Please model this.
Amino acid sequence: MISGINLGEMEMNNREKILKENDYNLTSSQYTAVVFGTMVGVSTISITKGIVRYAHQDLWISTAVGAIFPIYIFILTMVIFKKSPGENILTLNRKYFGKFAGGLLNLILLVYFLITLLIIGNTYIDMITTFSAGFLSPFKVALAVFAVSAYAASNGLRVVAKVSQIALYLTFLLILPSIMALKEAKIINIYPVFESGFSGIVNGGIEAFKQYLGIEIIFIIYPYLKQKDKMAKVTVNAILLTTLVHVWIGFISVYYLGSDVILKSDWSFLLVTESVTISLINNFRYIFILVWSLIILKSISLYYSALLFCLKDFTSNKFQYKILAFVVLPLLVLLCIEFENIFPTEEILNFITISYEIYLIFLGTLMAITVSIKSPKEQRKN
Model:
């Protein structure tokens, strides 16, 4: 009787383990979509806003220079991955730096994902209420978007990854029609090339770093890639696709609008979509905003998942993701509504963003060095 009970418990535990693996293990295409999805979202259509101040008509070159940031994060991750393929950075921080220091490093990462989630959520609310649903209150929009994201994130990383796959295809379907803007663009808008000089392009590239934020999610999710031998290939594919999207949006925006117009516009690529005319579609811009909203929902769901990973590091193992996802929901809605009071100026947000860029580079570099030094010692001991 006792052995029968133990056998039943073992079978139940095995089923739970299989369920968990199915919920979180990612295929190569899903992994690519997740990494791409964290870097392409709400701010992508306004990517030119900050860069144009430095690079002017060369801003599209600066968007390519900005790809240095995800490439460096990728290199660091590969070093960590080769030494500890089954443990993500949250586990490694506590393993190598202890409960207190490791917990502090994880807490800073948690706050980063929280703030990024609020920034995306607030920007999404602004876009929706400005361009398509002004009759809705910010509270209703925030509640709807975070509730949907909480539901998606609570069902496991694989569900969010499948949504990310759809969003990846939608991203290219939405951007492809902007090719039509080429016939109305003026080549003088991008000439002379390199006029902003080396320093202008580099400074624009540094500004473009923030458009690639999100790549750091690979610090957390790499153990969940099924085909670990394809880690390098799928991550590089995601970075290349992201860079392609950013460079094209930067190029077509300045080519069609010119740097002077971009300086005065918060959503420059939306102005480009006005040039798109498709039979049977009266207003492509409206369609664009509607579909892009779904892409932003994907981004919010991804960052919601990353936040849950960090929160789980500070909670009991019995505290399930499904419960955790909805426990933090009211807090996220409240913070998003109070966003303007928490972060009253753009300068504060820029400072926070730059600070976290530096922190992510520091954290990744520190861990890459640590595992390179300590991992061989651990192997010799074993």
User: Anything to note?
Assistant: Residues 9 and 343 are 50 Å apart (CA to CA).
